[in-house]
């Protein structure tokens, strides 16, 4: 189960955001406007590679 949902502090109070949550072996991404809707799920290895690729762009 995915929990501990968080959104970026740069989002302020806006509702047009995504949240990221963590589970034992996965990470979830969901829309703050539809928290009960679909959740994109990634295994932690894939998520970590995604984050590293963002760092490499800077």
TrEMBL record:
Q: List every stretch annotated Disordered.
A: 1-38
Under the heading InterPro entries, the entry gives:
DUF397
The DUF397 domain covers 4-54
Which Pfam families has this protein been placed in?
DUF397
Residue stretches of biased makeup (Basic and acidic residues): 1-13, 28-38
Q: What is this protein called?
A: DUF397 domain-containing protein
**Species this chain originates from:** Saccharopolyspora aridisoli
């Amino acid at each position: 189960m995915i929990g501990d949902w968080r959104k970026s502090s740069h989002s302020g109070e806006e509702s047009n955001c995504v949240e990221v949550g963590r589970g034992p072996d996965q990470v979830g991404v969901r829309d703050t406007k539809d928290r009960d809707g679909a959740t994109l799920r990634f295994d932690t290895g894939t998520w970590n590679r995604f984050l590293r690729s963002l760092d490499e762009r800077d």
